[in-house]
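I hope you will forgive my troubling you with a question about protein structure. I am sending you one protein, given as its amino acid sequence and as whole-number tokens for its backbone shapes. Thank you for your consideration; the sequence and its tokens are set out here:
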Amino acid sequence: MHFFTFANKFIEVKKIPHTYVIVFCIVVLAAFATWIIPGGEYVQEYNYLGDKEVIYRPIPSNPQSWQVFSALFDGFVRQAGIIAFILIIGGAFWIVNETKALDLFINSFLKYANKGKRYSVIKKIGSDNVIIIFIMVMFSVFGAVFGMSEETIAFVIVFVPLSISMGYDSITGVAMVFVAASLGFAGAILNPFTIGIAQSLSGLPLFSGMGYRLICWSIITVVGIVFVLRYAIRIKKNPTSSLVYDDDLYWRNKIDKTNHPIKEKSTLNGYVLHGLIVIALALFSWYIPLSKINIGSLSIDIPILPITTLIYAIFGVIAIKHSSQSYVLLMILFTIIYLIIGVMAHGWYIKEISTLFLVLGLASGVVMNISANQITKLFLTGAKDIFSAAFIVGLAGGIIIILENGKVIHPLLHYMANGMGNFGKTATLGVMYGIQTVINIFIPSGSAKAALTIPIMAPFSDLIGLSRQATVLAFQFGDGFTNMITPTSGVLIGVIGVARIPYVKWLKWISWFMVALILLGFLLLIPTVFIPLNGF
């Protein structure tokens, strides 16, 4: 019997460990590593010329023992922002779900998608395939342009039920949002959190070399879409073949409960609330008449808030006349629009985004005439329902705490960097890429990893005649792909936690795709060594 067939059979026979068990075992392994790896750290010092240089120095190790139990607390403190974000999103969307607006959207969306089959082009490609392609390209662009990451947690709650309603599974729903954004993040064109920081630390013009990165992003995105489409088509033909078929019972039951006709209605509260929202938006528009939209190194001043306020005011009246559910859908749409504006123009992060979705949840309850007490109960129920996802994020955060306190992250980087030796340019670039890929497991933060590794890698690339742009691209790929698999990533753990996908099943699904992406990344790095590309 083929080895992998045997391995799959073995996994099916054995009971899959709970995600909490897996993450805690990784915490224990991290603590064990602190006992066998000597301590060390990279520091910046001034040389005799007065220039800063990064040097490595051994320091006493700090073996971790009982800290494996306190890692949960420390992880909660470290990941407090993402945990609060998940709980607020869960509570807010539970209120939104009570309005039945999303169920109405899903039903209408599926009917519209079926009508699309009348067109020969769409019929040939498949209306469902067109939908998946469109959604994935959109989120890939978000990841490539402004580094969408944590924001995907909010969208999972919408796209997983949609995916299952279309005959797919929760993995497909997560792939359309999280995997697509991660592909864009890895093939970043203008991402300020990775490319911007890495090029600044390398002394390169900000966002230079964009032409080749655009090619890389296109190839990576197409490969990802093909992979997801092949999987989705297989699940559509045989839903029970899904790894998470049993786990998706939660979502199927939730959808089945909403199959009865939805009673649409308009309320006086809706008109009053619409007026108050328009007044508030008008005040913001007066206070911030122009927003500076940053797209890479290009900054454009646009009166985006006044424009969106006017559009919202007009379509809000139309929506509320139709039904309160339609108005809730309009609020969801503009919540997404303002999220994008906030991130791109005003530097929003999870605090501002959490606030935005909290207001969406409260406003949805008011529109539907839900009492204040009932809104509170719904919010607490939603937060409770999603608490397991938030809890596992805190536990996973403990892994990083153990490695950092044990003083082993920098030694790992040092040993791997020394292992490059006297390789050729291509091999050295491949080793750099491998180092960034491995380090990403321990330091999932792109900006933190750039600050640690680029000051070491960039001067080294000069010594061997390797382009600094190639070094930055190796960092970019190494930082991006494994975000979809590393258990130390709070975003990944949060996403699959919200979608109720066990980590082992996610790992089994994405592992071969991850191998293919890593190999693809290396192939895309090779031209940076041999071909003089624009910006390199």
